[in-house]
Amino acid sequence: MLLVKDGHLSELTELFDRYQVPLYNFFLRLTLDKATSEDLTQNLFYRVIRYRQSYQASQGTFRTWLYRMARSIYADFYKQRQKQPGRLTDEGAEEGLADHSSGYSEADFQRLDEALALLPSDQREILVLSRYQGLKYEEISKIKDLSVGAIKVQVFRAIRQLRSLYFKQS
């Protein structure tokens, strides 16, 4: 990223290749819409180019900086969506996201996705960051500007709520 910051934009290709799929999946888990997730991912990399001078290696990792920006893009999208009547959805949005090698049935994954969609946006976001994107609590705390302890409490509450919603569907 330091090379990109210095004007070597061709170096962004490696960063794009590394982060495109995880960021697309991050947006997909939040929006449940493939086209919207593609647009948000594209907008994110546009912002990386546009705001490359704001990256400070001393203030955290590139991944933290990138997810902070992704979170901001999603917040902007969510505000716009709240202003519009109706909800954006995509029938097949959940397809292909789960790892089916664990022995759980397709119905189990479907119920989990439905329960996740019922969570409030902030709880869904923290679970997507911690469980689906694999970010550490320290990274999430930098992204959300909260203490690690506060992140742990939010994750605990979100999992408890998700568990409740999941088992209510039975």
Question: What do you see in this structure?
Answer:
This protein is mainly alpha-helical and 170 residues long. It folds into two domains: 1-90, RNA polymerase sigma factor, region 2, helix turn helix motif (Rna Polymerase Sigma Factor, Chain: A), CATH 1.10.1740.10; 104-170, Arc Repressor Mutant, subunit A. The protein is built from eight helices and no strands. It has helices spanning 2-5, 12-31, 34-50, 62-83, 106-118, 121-132, 137-144, 148-168. Helix 2 (12-31) packs antiparallel against helix 3, helix 6 (121-132) crosses helix 8 and helix 7 packs across helix 8 (148-168). The termini are far apart. The model is unreliable at 86-100 (pLDDT under 50).
Task: Summarize the SSE layout with pairings.
Layout: H1 2-5, H2 12-31, H3 34-50, H4 62-83, H5 106-118, H6 121-132, H7 137-144, H8 148-168
Helix pairs in contact: 2-3, 2-6, 3-4, 4-7, 5-8, 6-8, 7-8
Q: What attributes characterize this protein structure?
A:
mainly alpha; 8 helices; 170 residues; 2 domains; Arc Repressor Mutant, subunit A; Rna Polymerase Sigma Factor, Chain: A
